[in-house]
Amino acid sequence: MSSPGSGMLSGFTKLCKGLAVILIGGHVVVQLLPTSVTYLALIPARTIPFGWNLITAGYIEQSVHGVVVSTLGLLFMGKLLEPIWGSKEFLKFIFIVNFLTSVCVFITAIALYYLTMQEKYLYMPLSGFHGVLAGFLVGIKQIVPDQELYLLKIKVKWLPSLMLLLSIAISFFTPESATYLPTLIFGTYIGWIYLRYLQRKPESKLRGDPSEDFAFSTFFPEFLRPIIDPIASIFHRMLCGKSEASSNPQGYTLEGAPLLGSDPIEASRRRERGARALEERLAAEKLAAGRDSEEPHIDGNDHV
């Protein structure tokens, strides 16, 4: 007999389970061998020659609560994203967001050192999967933006913004904010850059999501968008040339050539698939819970 709530705890993909094992295994390693943090975490002063820590740091959780949050976040968000993106694209997203986030965090730490001349920015061990989790939130915002969270009574599209706002607020009261805040900020931004301009859809040979609903300004309240849009357009021109996505229904352009995959129709279809997949999963979980509650209890004294 399956237990109540088993529907919620089932359906995790093999890839997500494997990555969860890596996160848990990395945490166990640094607990048993504390010196391994020197080689696996991102320590800016030692990244050269230990360049591999730009990759390994994202999979090393140094605290118990960190590995719990990262593992659960990976399993539950991956349960929604991987079936829609595909396993190959899901893994590619994790690798790219993790690596580029580490590069940005490394550059930021070096810049902070030269600005403050405090060596703590060079030698603090930075690691954790939270940068990728921030990117996952952006992916969920893209797929099911108008889905409302039952407990929080807010739409999914606001999750990345609220997460960053809460993290920034907490950073004023925690001295170790430098160990997580840059990672969350860059994880969110790199995730958006990848999904907005680079993600390729194998079934349609398309790339990116140029829809207005996924513009950078949608991370901010409505009254700030007239200020954010001109700033965001600078980065848009850097990535897509001088043309405006809104004036080119066929997609973005790069040095005058159309970028494959920036079709607004495809972006709309992607969100529809995401909403449909979420609805089907929720319906399946409710059905499983209903079956569990209706299943008769068999007592040892019952007889024919």
Description:
This protein has 304 residues and is mostly helical. The protein has eleven helices and four strands; from the N terminus they run αααααααααββαββα. The chain has a two-stranded antiparallel ribbon with strand order 1-2. Strand 1 and strand 2 form a beta hairpin. The longest helix is centred in the C-terminal third of the chain and has 31 residues. The chain is globular, with a radius of gyration of 22 Å.
Specify the helix fraction band: 55-70%
Return the string of H and E elements.
HHHHHHHHHEEHEEH
Strand fraction: under 5%
The whole-number mean of residue pLDDT values reads 81
Spatial gap, N to C terminus: 21 Å
Quaternary structure of the protein? single chain
The tally of strands reads 4
In the sheet with the most strands, the strands line up as 1-2
Shape: globular
Largest sheet: 2 strands, antiparallel
Radius of gyration: 22 Å
Low-confidence stretches: 242-262, 300-304
Continuous helix count: 11
Structural class: mainly alpha
